[in-house]
Amino acid sequence: EDPSLERHFKGHRDAVTSVDFSLNKKQLASGSMDSCLMIWSMRPQMRAYRFVGHKDAVMCVQFSPSGHLVASGSRDKTVRLWVPNVKGESTVFKAHTATVRSVHFSSDGQSLVTASDDKTVKVWTVHRQKFLFSLSQHINWVRCARFSPDGRLIVSASDDKTIKLWDKTSRECIHSFCEHGGFVNHVDFHPSGTCIAAAGTDNTVKVWDVRMNRLLQHYQGNAVVNSLSFHPSGNYLITASNDSTLKILDLLEGRLLYTLHGHQGPATCVAFSRAGDLFASGGSDEQVMVWKTNFDAADYGDVLKTQKSGTSVDGTRHTLVEMDCGVHLKKTKPQDSGRNHAQQEEETSLANTLEHIMGQLDVLTQTVSILEQRLTLTEDKLKECLENQQKIIQNKTN
After folding, report:
1. Which residues are registered as beta bridge partners of 90?
2. Are 38 and 71 spatial neighbours (Cβ–Cβ below 8 Å)?
3. Starting from the edge strand earliest in sequence, which strands make up the sheet with 131-135, in order?
4. How many Cβ atoms from other residues are within 10 Å of residue 305's Cβ?
5. pTM score, two decimals?
6. CB 184 within 8 A of CB 161
7. Which end of the chain has the lower number of beta carbons within 10 A, N or C?
8. What number is the average pLDDT over the span 227-251?
9. What angle do CA 114, 117, 123 make, to 5 degrees?
10. Where is the secretion signal located (predicted)?
11. What is the pLDDT of residues 245-262, one digit of tens each?
12. 25-50 burial, b for 16+ CB within 10 Å, e for fewer?
């Protein structure tokens, strides 16, 4: 079955620049040149929130992994962290000396990476927004920066026509990919963390292996590609282009699966939901659209299972994805007319319970990660103490 348009959101007063789903798919965030951030509810008849605070165009938005925060970057050089509820409270910090093009949370929700026209990539703590370090080898605007799924690497794409791969710990550039014939608008990691995909103004999408640093796939389009998003299974890639189309690429077969026409004028941004059953797109036409993926459900379940066993990403993330997928498949199966009401209610309450468990798991994952960080600090301190002790003993014996 082909992908189908599910919802259509109107409310922005200028081009949409960025879209992202929350973990539980109840909310969708979008940023726009109208300086506003909108939070749309995926439940029917629920009102949208318009968040006002940025003094200029909002270039990028992203939900935190837990869904409790939304980060936005703007032409006003600041980054804001919003609580996506009625109050819409936000904290703001001056992140760069020029337009902030990209914001991205690490998968543990602890760090934020930002990219800017000031040619730098910066990393911050989410808690208290403390500046950690800057990566500054690009010689032109940096359009996009992303953490790898395991948080060890950062990839950045720039108008200097390079994509740079950085080691987060040593803060060094490990590799530069220079084969693009134009500016690189967007880059992201494959869910397995083993490769990256990049979208360019030379009408191409390129997929590189980051272990061997070699080109794996190359797709030639007819228009500038503005944005891309990997399906959580890692088997599909969706792109948004200036010719107003969205394209779904089958990475296993290395071919174009679908071309979707929905926007009038350039399609500027696109993103799969965390479970992969939906994707959203935004355009210069001020519209936000939500599509149903409609990949074969059984096939999709298998895809997730095979992926789980074959990747190095930590297990918790995948159980989350799988649970979410399971709930959703249950909900979307056609209901037989003979089904009784109690059974449906039971399934809904089961879905709610699972969703609650997922939330709890996410909190646990974050807690564990904080504990791990503290443990590392303690170990380092201990090592320091022991070394000092050795020195004292040596000095005494000498």
Report:
1. 82
2. no
3. 100-105, 111-116, 121-125, 131-135
4. 13
5. 0.75
6. yes
7. C
8. 97
9. 20
10. none
11. 999 999 999 999 999 999
12. bebbbbbbbbbbbbbbebeeeeeebe
